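Section handout 9: paired folding examples.
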Amino acid sequence: MDNKHEILELLRAVADGTATPEDALLELKRSPFEDLGYAKVDFHRSVRQGAAEVLYGASKTAEQILGIARAMGERGCRNILITRMDAEKAAIVSAGVELEYHPEARLGIAFPGDRPALGSIVVCTGGTSDMPVAEEAALTAEAMGNHVTRLYDVGVAGLHRLLSSLDVLMRARCVVAVAGMEGALASVVGGLVDCPVVAVPTSVGYGASFGGLSALLAMLNSCASGCSVVNIDNGFGAGYLASMINQMEGLKAD
């Protein structure tokens, strides 16, 4: 089985007599992973964590990405995220499987399918230069079934731009704040909202920003409560965490 919902349906079928325990056991015994030689594809990731395995594309060949994606697709996985994949690799992969590719974020979604748009996540950036990282976060969250609102170029150099969207921010279940330079956006947002803030430092900035280290340290030392920090340029990690927060809040609301 490839996700928790399918397993739950199988167990319900056993309970109401439409499936035998033996049939259920046979289905569950299907290998939880497949060894492709260069990768052991984890088919039970969605059972444990609620989302399918994510492919990190930067250090893989296009052929390896394609092989893993095909193996997952054959087991019914959909909306498979492939991060840090350049356009050249994407062209090769798209020739072998259905692929939705977003070049700015360098992110692909193999076997794209229906996905809900639950709750409310806001992804905001300090500047336009932070958009590639922000898009990685936003697209990740959307692929995982969340409603995402983008607020781009609302940094502290012109605070009125952020304040004009207070109503959107205050309705969010989670805010992803993406900023380089001095990384002040996360602290400002954290002081305005009553939901968790996921801060993403970016490598945008001049020499003394040290490739994002300045923003990272500023965000780690934020005086705003409820602000967590992911690694430099880690839009995927932020989108994934925001999805977990948003959907947990949704379960509470339900």
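Moving on to protein 2 of 2.
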Amino acid sequence: MSAKKTVCVLDPYHKDAVALLQSEPDLEVVPPDDPRKSHWREIADGILVRSETRITAEDLNAASRLQVVVKQGVGVDNIDLDAAKERGVAVHNTPALNSEAVAELSLALALSLSRRVTELDRRIRGGERVVRSNALGMSLFRKTVGVVGMGNIGRAAARKWIGACEASVIGYDPVAPDGIWPDIPHKRVASLDELLRTADVVTLHVPLMQSTRGLIGARELTLMRDNAILINAARGGIVDEAALLRELRQGRLWGAVLDAVEEEPPTLEKHHDFLKLDNVIMTPHIGGSTMENQSESGQAAARTLMAVLRGETSIGGKLV
């Protein structure tokens, strides 16, 4: 970097990522707790964001110095990519790095729901004397798991389900190439409907796009098997939440685990109808929130940003 450039970290990043940026002598780093952060549109050559911050066309038009936006994680629906392209601002993400952590959480949530872990914990904490014979869970051993989205996270999820539960895996992805999982025993189906009719567990691992918004709606939910479990550890908006609430109230499905909802973070005020149900577990979009992953993916985002500002062109995770 020939002249010193300013990087603003707009959302909380792991201390290792901030330290890596600060180790670069040609960078002026504005960390998340610095009041100068609010002036990023005037001062930033590069910014690091997460899902919390939306980067709009108005922001990009006002940011005359901005060269690059790097988003930690995969989804970039909080960034106006068309406006970035028009302004010549590069946009990068950190694909694949969250895969193991998100897959791990999706498995943990499903098992917690099937064995009624959080429900029984709440009841005991509330002073109830739980009778074991009245608190039977459902085993997921050797059940059929439908993986919607056969990318990096879906692949990691399939491996975990097979390893932990000896699951039979069904994969569905309308755009993934043939033979994408050569090393994973699975059956690939041609339609989402077929997967929904067959799977005991449906786990969603697709980005939020126009084609995936409302992917699981009222019709799709009625296709799911009795006592099936739905997992959304991807993005809010993929599931029609009103339709899901109606279906869950009927008690035909075993339940749903939601790490992603349309209004985040989930709160008792906004999601009280879901949270009144024992067959629901909600978490605040923490799929990638492990200490190890936050350090690794945060540093990857920082390295990508520094590479772009140095003028390097062969960089992974490029969107625009």
